[in-house]
Design goal:
Elements (H helix, E strand, L loop, with lengths): L4 H6 L1 E5 L7 H10 L4 E5 L5 H12 L4 E5 L4 H10 L3 E4 L4 H10 L3 E5 L2 H9 L4 E4 L2 H13 L7 E3 L8 H6 L5 E3 L6 H5 L3 H25 L1
Parallel strand pairs: 1-2, 1-8, 2-3, 3-4, 4-5, 5-6, 6-7
Amino acid sequence: MAGAETIERDGVVAVVRLEDLSTAAAIARALVAGGVRAVEFTFTNRLAAQAITAAKDAVGDDGYIGAGSVLDAETARVAILAGAEYVVTPTFKASTVELCNRYGVPTACGAFTPTEILTAWEAGATYIKVHPASLGGPKYFKDVLGPMPQVKLIPSGGVTFDNVAEFIRCGAVAVALGSNLVDAKSVRAGAFETLTDRASTLRQIVSAAREGLAQES
């Protein structure tokens, strides 16, 4: 789908799960400045829709703003109308994927077992968010992709600066990081340059891992 290539090209999705979203615009600008353009605000916060609108207004076409923790089609529609350009779910729900496809909005559907992953993929999910990725680790991705190489997997939950490269080497098309990239302490302190530096470092790690794979092939 249009726009989904941003996630694969950059290889990093920032997951913003905070109690205070009043600085959503500044967070988005800081991450985009560091090269992480896919920024997801989760609907665990009742002000997520407003944060999405503020972030999109702040970064315009330079960013790619999404909605996370979307549990149903109704919430997905609220998110899309607020400006969300992609929708991330913690579990697979066919009606949510159907609505997003109707609007032409990419989805990253939560799944873990091979059966769940294939079910979500065949239902039209753009990506499969494997969560919690810490449970199986990078090797699990390699094992799943062996018989299903067509599926596009994104690890979430337990992704750190130390294992990003291994997830990429094992077949992830991108990685999703939450508090390891956007933490409440830095945001409260207004240390947005810290988010920019982290984003830039992550992009470098992903690029280096991809270059290594290219040289091996």
